[in-house]
Design brief:
The complex is a heterodimer. Chain A is of the alpha/beta class. Chain A has 15 helices and 28 strands. The relative contact order of chain B is 0.27. Classes of the chains: A alpha/beta, B alpha/beta.
Chain lengths: 569, 138
Amino acid sequence: MKGEEPRIGVFVCHCGTNIAGVVNVPSVVEYAKTLPDVVYVENNLYTCSNDTQERIKQIINEHHLNRVVVASCTPRTHEPLFRNTLREVGLNPYLFEMANIRDQCSWVHMHEPEAATEKSKDLVRMAVAKARLLEPLLRRLVKVNKSALVIGGGLAGMTAALAIANEGFDAYIVEKENELGGNLRNIHYLLNGEKPQAELQRLREKILQNSRVHVFTGATIGTIDGTIGDFRTKLSMNGQSTEIGHGIVIVATGATEYKPTEHLYGQDDRVLTQRQLEERLVSNRFNNGNGSDQTVVMIQCVGSRDDNHPYCSRVCCAEAIKNALRIKATSPQTHVYVLYRDIRTYGLKESYYTKARQQGVTFIRYQEAHRPEVKRNSRALDVFVFDPTLGMEIMIPADLVVLSAGIHPHPENRALAQLLKVPVNAEGFFLEAHMKLRPVDFMTDGVFLCGLAHSPKTIEESILQAQAAAARAATILAKDSIEMEANVSEVLDASCDGCAYCVDTCPYKAITLLEYMWAGQVKKVVETNETMCKGCGCCQATCPKKGVLIRGFTLDQIQAQIHAALGVA
Amino acid sequence: MSGNFDPLIVALCCNWCSYTGADLAGVARIQYPHNVRIVRVMCSGMVHPNLVIDAFTSGADGVLMCGCHLGDCHYQEGNYKAEKRAEAIRLMLADFGIEEERFRLEWVSAAEGPRFAQIVREFTEQIQTLGVSPYRTH
């Protein structure tokens, strides 16, 4: 492609009505036809569909296209797909550029169709400007270390590690506590009668017996270096440090139960969390001789769905009903009240909600603005709640108040996120690459997530997600070598005078200064190590002479986009 | 001319945090002014100060540079370098007779769609108050 005049094809996507419902797609198409080096333009209902991929290949051949621009959604999710289409037809995958007219136009200027259309034309012009300067790039291969690091030895981590081991790869579980099990250690029975502790025991045994699973307990992670296929992690255990090499990472660090500060929790030992109630129920410490007519009041959404934790913790409704049914099974005369905002016993758990009501558990709704209040009197706890159905406040004298404490992200998530260079969301849970398209991947290649580290979820959901993460990981571990991004640094010897400003600024120590004799004079020039370079571009932003650049994001390419944005040639 | 003119603003957004944050604003359908044109870069640390100055002398009314929050950079410390370069950029702007308020460096995480939209809203208003750039020819 080098030396050939650019012949650019532009494909403008309707994305159903996502784009075409706001942006005037035909006018963007007509505009694109006027842009320099553009030889073919069309619009598609869905540019990412299989049919359109075949069509793009056909058009590349028919019109001898050597650059492709797709105006649709974000390159973060769809660039790999289109690049692959180019590759399948024999065109270098880096001769491709996207204009994000959905996320940056139709979705954010929904009520300004004209402005959104004009902006779409600008984004297409910018993409074409960059496409004209694109060059074919080659990806280098890195050998894959066929083992996995699983951070966290709870249910999700153990499930993922076993699944990976069963695929024939080694898995290293790093658990900061002294035993495996995580939060599952506190769950003694499920709504359907299953006994998680027996399953936990079976899992532990399977792991101990599996020669491919290596467990480090009481271990903390010091550093994680490297990239997909070739990570190196330093661990420390009992003051001793070890280094392990691995090809992928699975984050399964779990979450914590909220420690309430409201409703007299911690001030009165008759106020418990659901987890503490469950412990009492299984160890027969529930009926402590207070007579038979006990009253238990459960309060839902404690530390969930509030200003600081706007999300639903998903498991608490079912957990409250599970414990209420258990109380009713062991002492039917006990009065159980559940103060709730919305009951979300989703899926088949709904039948247990019905069962609880049949067995006499009283459900009373409360509103966020009127949270229940727990007060101490000389004999019992008085729970005040405003019942919106009755339109009045009622008082329930309680022997026990049980708080359905929410699931909170692990406080150490942020530190681990910084080590791995992956994001957490506003609440502090780990954030996947895309909710629907890449639900167990991080944006960073070779790093996956599962379990409560990602969001509150049930045991079944954690197991499924762990299996998904292991399956995604296996797609990499099954390969002997993997292609790395080609967007790395390159030195232009003719422009480099060896000033070496870039040497100090490189975070990966990928640049070295060379001195040599040439025509009787000492010449200096820098050299980059492509395997160590990750393409951050600190070098190109430091160089005073355009002597080092990042392929695919050169200063000239970025400048061309800026000039196109500003409408200057 | 100042007040309600339509400013041209270039935003240089890093791939890993702020470009993703801008995508999230889209996914959440958060509406913001149409004046910003986003250029995706891999890291705020790859933006040469000359690119920003060139954007201004080519007619940009404002330039927004966005990276990951300090400590969160995908490449360890690119955003710290961007922060230092921003100081240099502000000094150079004075030499070019451009108000330093026309340039802004912001940190936007991949989860901060609302924050990205809010920054665009505020910055657009700020540029509208400053008026058309002296370098803008059309």
